[in-house]
Amino acid sequence: MCRLFALTSEIPQSPMIAINALNVMKEGHDGSGVGILLRDLGGPFEDMKDAPILSGIFSEQGMKRLDLFMMDQGFMTKYKMSIKVPKEKLPDVPRRAMYLVRAYEYPEDWEGLTESEIKRRLMLTRLQIRGMGKEENDMIVFSFWPDTIMIKEIGDPLDIGHYLGLDRPELHARVIMAQGRQNTNYAINLYACHPFFIEGYATMTNGENTAFIPIKDFLSSRDFPGYTGYESDSEVFAHILHYCMEGLELDLDAYKHIITPLQDTDLKGHPDAEFLSHLKKSCRPLIIDGPNCVIGNLPDNTVFMAQDRKKLRPGVVGGRPGMYAFSSEICGLDATIPDRDKTTDIQPMHLDTVIVGPDRQEVEICPQSQALHLQH
Amino acid sequence: MSSIASITPSTLSLNDLPWQIEWNKDKCTLCGQCTAVCPVRAIEMQVYRKKTLNTSLLPGHEQGKQFSTYYGIGQKTNVANACIGCAMCNMVCPNNAITPQRNPGVSRLKFHMNQDGQPRRRGGRKNSTESVLDQIKFTRISMLTDPALDAGRHEFELRTLLGRILSPKENMKRLREKGWIPPVREIYPMVIGGMSFGALSPTMWEGLQMGVAYLNEELGMPVRMCSGEGGCPPRLLRSRFLKYVILQIASGYFGWDEIIHAIPHMKEDPCAIEIKYGQGAKPGDGGLLMWHKVNKLIAAIRGVPQGVSLPSPPTHQTQYSIEESVAKMIISMSMAWGFRVPVYPKISASSTSLAVLNNLTRNDYASGLAIDGEDGGTGAAYSVSMDHMGHPIASCVRDNYLNLIKIGKQNEIPIFAGGGIGKNGNIAANAAALIMLGASGVQVGKFVMQAAAGCIGTEHDRCNVCNIGICPKGITSQDPRLYRRLDPEDVAQRIVDLYVSFDTELKKIVAPLGRSTSLPIGMSDALGINDKAAAERLSIKYVV
């Protein structure tokens, strides 16, 4: 079972905090890979919140092809942060030419486009680069989105953290999500590493998704180009979140009603019984069956945790106003925020979505039994 | 054989018959129960003459011969009275003195079952034990990476949906705008398939209804039963139990006068309306209730004269195209119940099924598609149809489901699969395989008759006389002397046994796959088969 850790803090923090938390929980992952998502960035990216940032791994040939492609599209480099790989290679970590984090200026002909059109084009650009990379095996792209950086690599999280120098101030961020991987079903493939990202929505998960195939089939047939990939059975959690909030224009509290709907006897007494009954039927193929703990992040930098219907995975949320952490295990939380009031720690149960909003002042518990916000 | 008997082309010997009666003189009490119970009068009391030779050379002993007679059971060899292997003789024999045995040689009866130019007709089944469904295994077992669930402890929600489900976006939109949302029923995924009042005896039908009512009202299992094409008893139409019934309309429209007139008096809407266009056992052929079974009660319910054969035409005579069927019939039936009742067609599995499905996807009122495979049962059909016509269910369901995925409507038009589920007794495994291939649920008929009423038919051409009203168990007979053998209360009890045990078995299949909160429709990654060609055809794993 993989280990998950997420942090949301008013003051930008080093990604190494999350890496250390994963290291504390090392008994729960086999060091076969790590994925980090950084959002609400500090450092130099603070002043370019709107500029899309491309994160990925490139070979030398891939870099050349990327530059040509991006120029062709009209993107101009605004800021570049290259992670120079140390000469001495880490055992079991592939030798890469370049870990790229690069902010771009939008093409001139994008001016005047609506926000939703810009979002769509960013996603399509990412998919195009991913497709090109697959053809030549020279580019891996994780995200292309404003105020967002993603780094993934095969190997032990702590080793990789040091190897890539993730402690550097340019990478400090207010939202950090990290997963230490327990490789199970799939050959190690960086596209199968969590967190997964689509148009500002990200999730990471542990546990297997036994209902993967029907969910994948359903998402793939929504006529939305971003619902693709699926190198991991967990990628669907991010896409369901996106479908819930962007496709169906529902609020975050509906997400859990889609993946783990209430049983009919519980639905009967619910204030939104009719709505939920329709949601359950029409989204039936998106029901997960666990065992999964999901930690997610929304475009407004809200962070949340939700559990499967039977709560078969551990998970805890705690902290203090200004800084909260979401962790698979309490030891991860203790290592990060030791001076919190532990009596207010929350271990979400089978009906709960636990949410820390962008203001990071409190933890909101949103049980499925309560009325929905419905449309946002 | 006496010397004056003639030998004709259809004169048969015991060796030519598929079933041969073994009778034990020593055990027989000559009570006559076997001859009385035999549905085809294959056996009769006979007088046997025996010659005894006295060849003793001892003085005082007279040499010579003696004749004696004794009584016993004999088997007829004429075509009309050929033993059907039902073994009722054995069932009633107090001393186990008689039993039919399958001819270990080659039966020649088949060449003669066309007397008077009438090809063989029969009820029952395809008479083939082949089953792709039986070959399918569930191979994706949760092991360590994700814990298998506990079939006995965890909560399960294994119901399915019958009705047109809108896409999530469209559903949300209509909810907001208070538009019409098609009716959807949440039901148990195993439906008792259409077997008409007429094809079945009154006691059988009553027993099924009672069992279904008990399952719903006492055990909370939303089991539904399809009426078949034969109408519905007036009292049931006007009762609250109608909600457990799927009313079937087929090309003969039998019973629909009564149903339409009862609409204003209905306390509950029926579960759904099934429009039968085809039956897997005899695709492209219509229904048939032979005159033997059309008694006063049946005639009254169906609105026809007594004692005449009731063939339903192969097609609905008022419709000559799919457009008409979809546009007219489905909408008319929906309208009759104020668009509150799901209406869906049932077709025979066929290589043209996709065309039907594609039409349904464009009609908001189509609530699903029931597909009946070649292994489906029938009350009466020509043997040639049952033996040689039809399409297997597994690949047909798979093709249709994959097509729905292609157009993104896999959750919108539920496919219900029928035909051969449990034909060799593996009902839960067969049903689960079809669900994971893409069916939303299954329709089961023959297994219900066997498990709930003790039908003695087998896939080896045993019995198969459902069509002519002589069912020795009283399941498909309208003769009170026969159907009184079947106690409706017993049938109801067995239906409950069947569903409760099926439910346990289904959980024992899905729990190890890590599934419990929803029916694993289309979970094809769980399936494997030891046949490369079948694996490729069904897009599932090939395992050896």
Question: What is the structure about, briefly put?
Answer:
The complex is a heterodimer of chains A (about 375) and B (about 550). Chain A has about 375 residues and is an alpha+beta fold.
Rg of chain B, alpha carbons:
27 Å
The mean pLDDT of chain A is: 92
Please state the structural category of chain A.
alpha+beta
Q: What is the CATH architecture descriptor of chain A?
A: 4-Layer Sandwich
Q: Counting H and I runs of at least 4 residues, what is the number of helices of chain A?
A: 10
- Report how far apart the termini of chain B are: 57 Å
**Percentage of residues in DSSP E strands of chain B:** 15-25%
Rg of chain A, Å, rounded? 20 Å
Tell me, briefly, the overall form of chain B: globular
Tell me the layout of helices and strands:
The complex is a heterodimer of chains A (376) and B (544).
Chain A: E1 3-13, H1 15-24, E2 34-41, E3 52-58, H2 60-73, E4 76-83, E5 98-105, H3 115-136, E6 139-146, E7 148-153, H4 157-163, E8 173-180, E9 196-198, E10 201-206, H5 212-220, H6 235-247, H7 255-259, H8 264-268, H9 273-282, E11 293-297, E12 303-307, E13 316-320, E14 323-327, H10 330-336, E15 352-356, E16 363-367
Antiparallel strand pairs in A: 1-8, 1-14, 2-7, 2-8, 3-5, 3-6, 4-5, 9-10, 10-11, 11-12, 12-15, 13-14, 15-16
Chain B: E1 19-23, H1 33-37, E2 43-54, E3 64-75, H2 88-92, E4 98-102, E5 121-124, H3 132-135, E6 137-138, E7 160-163, H4 168-177, E8 184-187, E9 190-192, H5 202-217, E10 225-226, H6 234-237, E11 245-249, H7 256-262, E12 272-276, E13 288-289, H8 296-302, E14 310-311, H9 322-336, E15 343-348, H10 353-361, E16 369-372, E17 378-382, H11 383-388, H12 393-406, E18 415-418, H13 427-437, E19 441-444, H14 446-453, H15 480-483, H16 488-510, E20 527-529, H17 532-538, E21 541-542
Parallel strand pairs in B: 9-19, 10-11, 11-12, 12-15, 15-16, 16-18, 18-19, 20-21
Antiparallel strand pairs in B: 1-4, 2-3, 5-17, 6-20, 7-8, 13-14
